[in-house]
Amino acid sequence: MDKKNRTYIRVAILGVLLAALVFAVYTSFVKDPNAVKVGKEAPNFSLEQLNGPAVTLSDFRGKGVILNFWGTWCEPCKKEMPDLQKQYEAYKDKGLVILGVNIGESPVTVEPFTKQFGITFPILMDKQSEITKLYRIVPIPSTFFIDPDGKVQEIFLGPLNEDMITQKVAKILPK
Amino acid sequence: MQLVQLSDWLLDIAFVLYVLASIVFVVAMTGKNWAGRDPKQHELKYGRIAYWLALIGFIAQTGYVIFRWIAGGHSPTSNMFEFMAFLDYCIILAYLIIYRIYKLTVIGAFVLPLGVIMLAYSYVFPKEITPLIPALQSYWLHIHVTTAALGEGILAVGFAAGLMYLVRTVPQEAATKSTRWLEIVLAVVMMLVGFIGMESTFSRLDHKTVFELPKEQLNFQGEMEKMKVEYTLPAIVAPEGSKIIQAGPMTPLFTAPSWMEGKDAARKLNTMIWSVISGLVLYGGLRLILRKRLGAAMQPAVKDIDPELIDEISYRAISIGYPVFTLGALIFAMIWAEEAWGRFWGWDPKEVWALIVWLFYSAYLHLRLSRGWIGAKSAWMSVIGFVIILITLVVVNLVIAGLHSYAGV
Amino acid sequence: MDQIKCECGHANPVGTMLCESCGRPLELEIKGEASFPDMRYEGMARRSQTYSRTIIDRIWNYFSSVKVAIGIIVIILVASAIGTVFPQQQYIPVPVPTEPDVARFYTETYGKLGTIYYTLGFHNMYSSWWYVTLLVALGTSLVICSLDRVIPLYKALSKPRVNQHKSFLKGQKFYGEAELPAETDSAALVEAASAALRKKGYRIFQNDQAMMAEKGRFSRWGPYINHIGLIIFLLGVLLRNVPGFYLDEFVWVREGQTIAIPDTPYYVKNVQYHTEYWKEEEMAQELDLKGGAVVKSYQTDAILYLNKNADLPGANPDLVEIKSGPIIVNHPMEHEGLALYQTGVQEMQLGALNFVLVDKKAGNKEIGPIKLDLYNVPAEQQVADGVKVRVLDYFPDFVMGKDGKPATQTNLPKNPMFALEVVSEADNASEKLVYLSGSIITEKDDSRYTLEIKMPDLIDISGLMVRKDKAVPLIYFGSFIFMIGVAMGFFWQHRRIWLQFHGTRVMLAGHTNKNWYGLKQEAGAMIEQAKLPIAIEDKSKA
């Protein structure tokens, strides 16, 4: 084995080991490869509405979608509901859809609640919290801003106010 | 229930025989130079008697293991008492194997007392046969725990030989760092003896001190009641914010610092303090009687033993124990964990400490094989290695809570 | 390539310590060292050690050092130990671990040390980037050390030398030399010695003036095999991070519920849950359990389904039964690498509330039963002919809100509150009722209807862990190889005995990597049987 060959072999082996290192360290930072990320496509799903047929996320291609996860027990959700409703009314003709995903509650609980707040955007019933798990929801409210191409533009944890919604909606409205 | 009683008796018989064997072994080693004796003959004769005593003790303990297994319907490895007794059984087994290879009397003089201490330690824990909780109902309990204990038993013989090497070779003419550390090791052994002595004396005397804690817990009747802590030993340290509801032989001198966690933290600290005190009293007493360092007092008994041979025995024991330990404490453990919890490794404190033991002995082997660490360095490492094993078996169970903490003292 | 020529004429590569041909120590003379070179590779050149010109070579040499390997082992050891001082994040009792909660937990529970522990990231020690880096460094060291040593070892072992150089023999720990009596038949002695050793299982290489006997050569491969096992093991650990190789989920399933297992196309149904306790007659000894009992088993009878409509999460599932049976601790339900483990239970939880509707105006006549399934609340139910009950509002975990309105704290039915409406079609009248914490509040004092509360339905909720680990076979395989390696290396030893005649002098030397005691005994037996006029001295004692 001459010197050149030896160097090549060593470079190759060290290269493989370095790749292993990079991979190992990378995965130590990224715990969940399936988590929804900004810039990636929002995972598709289908859920029944509170008072209506099932809707599928991909049906809203071409529109900007705000996907909001909420529950009646969550105080901040209550706070942001009127703001969401207002923005929905303002932008629904400009191509904005708001989908409020309720996490595992009964229609008899949700219905009075939506009536109280005068919600008119579709409320989707995630009975088994399946979609909540799919989107890795920890704190609520959690809101995903999805552009007309179905890509996640922003993930926001915590309650939104009108200004924030206006600002973020601008990014996802169809041009 | 006679089977249980029979197994208890057999264990008691084994204990007595191990004590006798230890005494005869010590006589074999120290009595060589008594007047009018041929040292070789003396060692041979008493060594043989001691070996037979140990062997019969081992057979008795085998009977204990078998009968308790039959009586309980599971291998006697499911709680602290059973595990410690089984570990002791493995130490004696490893001793018998190593003795068959090297036929050296002095090994017994170090291993048998260790066996006595371990068995006495097991007696400190509750002895009842408890039915298996669901997590322990697996044939891996038998395979994993017995193999791990066997590995640890063999490594314990490596420790005994290492200690022997140090007693034999550390120069005792002047006080050095080595003599100091050797004395510390011996003092720690005394503390273990002191702990066992205190615990078994006071549990018989029934001088309990009972404290009531300012915390509440649910009792079996589903009512909230104040937590209680029972001390077997006289209380030096009281739990923070506690009230004595049954006074013991002495009033506590101070309360445990608040950062000590858990219901039993103060009691453990109390036990620790007593162990240290009694160990130091024992150690100090021996030094007063002997009027020299313990190491120096022991040295003449082993002075005609080939240190290189003991070094090799220590290494041999470790090199046999290491694969067995790996198989039992790591590989079988991983297979069981995979089957019980769906992950072969979960960084549970006990798992981590088994890994630490393994890493330590891996370092030992590399240092010995590649860096020429033989003799004293190697012997010190075998001692430290056993200390780490004891941490894994005792400290982790009693102090750091985790999936493996099956009993507490 | 640079070469060193030996006295015997053989050209050896640089770094060779003992001549490849005759075994004469080479470096000894060059460096004038008094000690004999070590026998690990029989003095073969470990090439790696001989070049350090480029950075690649330097990195290579760094990792090929055993000293560095030991350093890495010790650092991992210390780090691992520190990680057990306080519990890792995964074991702390914080249900939804958000960062501030976790930080607070460590500070509140362990004080200042806890804060430091958390700040340094020790609460996630074993998945931290630097711990992972240490493991990869260990793997690197394993790969390079093995590659670097296996070639010289192979060369050394494949060329056993019968005629070793005299200084080689003299350098051994076991060595003996003696003057032969006149008219000794050296060939016969070689033969006798060979025969004696052959009986002990030695392989003999001989000519009429010299003999080399060896045994257990294969044990020299033990370390390499166990290191390969470890490399495979670490590779398996690394592979678990590849998407799809490892799955770790947890689901709570109520009795009767069928639920999707996240990230899989499977559903699981909890048919029934059951906890069994040890009976007194089953125990070997009477125990004082202070009124408690010892659990014998936790068992969920479950059905596993495959959802054929799994492409669209949330859509109505098209379930096909795959497997049914019990899930017990230590006995998971398995299907194609997916395993469901019994890991938790919430027993005796509220499942449904039961009432009887009573007509107070008709002499407390019972009209009919009402069942309110807390997880699937019926909006309306027919109680009897012409009498309906409607649910107006439902708060599963009732609390009075800050605004004075009823609210719920969670979506779990821990403290259900119902607002109901009884509608009587006959007289076209309706009345409102509220159920809260075991009592009924009627709209008016002289209401017509009220509810009689019956025993609620209690259900058990079973916690199932769902795991998939495709790397496990590789990890077991690595462990298996490791065990073969250590067993080979530690339970057998490579023993060699050289016997040489130089004119009237006889020389005997022995070497082993461990168990000198055993070698000494075998050599002693050989001397006795072949009646060699020689005694071995253990040089280390001199």
Automatic annotation (TrEMBL), chain B:
GO MF annotation: an example: heme binding
GO CC field: plasma membrane
Cross-referenced Pfam families: Cytochrom_C_asm (PF01578)
All residue ranges annotated as the Cytochrome c assembly protein domain in the record: 78-172, 308-404
Tagged with keyword Membrane: yes
Gene Ontology biological process terms in this record: cytochrome complex assembly
UniProt-listed InterPro entries: Cyt_c_assembly, Cyt_c_biogenesis_CcsA, Cyt_c_biogenesis_CcsA/CcmC
Residue intervals passing through the bilayer: 6-28, 49-71, 83-99, 106-125, 145-167, 179-198, 272-290, 317-337, 352-367, 379-403
Domain of life: Bacteria
Classification via NCBIfam families: cytochr_II_ccsB
Name by which UniProt lists this protein: Cytochrome c biogenesis protein
Organism for this UniProt entry: Brevibacillus borstelensis AK1
UniProtKB/TrEMBL annotation, chain C:
GO cellular component: membrane
GO biological process assignments: cytochrome complex assembly
Subcellular location: Membrane
A Pfam family that the UniProt record links to this protein: ResB
Sequence ranges assigned to domain ResB-like in this UniProt record: 66-425, 444-522
Name of the protein in its database record: Cytochrome c biogenesis protein
Record key words, sorted: Cytochrome c-type biogenesis, Membrane, Transmembrane, Transmembrane helix
Transmembrane segments: 68-86, 129-151, 221-239, 474-492
InterPro entries referenced in this protein's UniProt entry, alphabetically: Cyt_c_bgen_Ccs1/CcsB/ResB (IPR023494), ResB-like_domain (IPR007816)
Topological category with respect to the lipid bilayer: Multi-pass membrane protein
